[in-house]
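User: ok so my PI wants both of these folded by tonight, can you help

Assistant: No problem, let's get them done. Here's the first:
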Amino acid sequence: MSPSTLPAAQALVLQDLVTPTAHGIASRLLEKTPGGNVTLFAFDGGQALTEHTSAFDALALVLEGRLTLSVAGAPIDAVPGTIVRLPANVPHAVDAPEASRMLLIMLKDA
């Protein structure tokens, strides 16, 4: 069985699943399987994830606020309702100029 922090068969409000941290970044792993992970992030305004790479493709879904995602050095403004694909092995970073929430889905080869 895959690790999950969510109860089965319930409709849950995403904003209630992670508690923002003043002057920080909070995250909660919602699901982890051999095929990937789903993680919910809450960024306080002015917080960022520095440039890094991942061996897997990822999908970043902005839930609230506004994020600037940098992919291979190119900035992408993302607002609620938008999705950005972060390709495997390509440097990327996340900047939150205001309080924001993001759902990150990592897609692994099973």
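One down. Here's the second:
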Amino acid sequence: MKFSSFELHELIKAWFVISVAFAIAMSGISVANFYLVLSPLFLIPVLFAGLTVGIAFLFHELAHKFVAQSYGCFAEFRANNQMLFMALIMSLFGFIFVAPGGVLIHGSVKRDEFGKISSAGIIANLILGSFFILGLHLIHIAVIQQLLYYGAYINVWLALFNLIPFLPFDGAKLLHWSKKAYGVLVVVCLVLLFYLTGFLGI
């Protein structure tokens, strides 16, 4: 894949802000105790979020970029600064809604190629989520299992979230291309979520 220096800056910025927003929400930090973000201990949930939510975000966007570039398109990620700021603000109220930006794609592609570009991020999250699930069976250290479970859960939920059948979500574009592919991905997401409920007690 080809990256510009500006795009790398945008990716790192979005990854960092997403990680901090989720860390704030997970830690129960609010406007009243916002000073807790200055504690060195806050780095722990930031790292936790960065390795789960942050990785899920990166894989999703880079999958779109990789497939688009493979079809000869210009594809670069651009952060949405307003939405990143809103994510930080909402996290202080215990609510997270993240729309960090997206991959800008320019070029002429066929309908099936556009569908594959749209589905790439969803499939990437499902693959990554499956690796996290595999790790749950192979590693039995409690702290690491918590990380693996959260990583799996976030990836599967991100895939399902992006299957919302309305623009600008990937689901609308995928549904326009192939109802069968859309249905298969929805079923896979639901099966994996149901499977993950068996690990809620770890």
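Residues 43-70 form the longest helix (28 residues). Strands lie at 74-79, 101-106. Good luck tonight!
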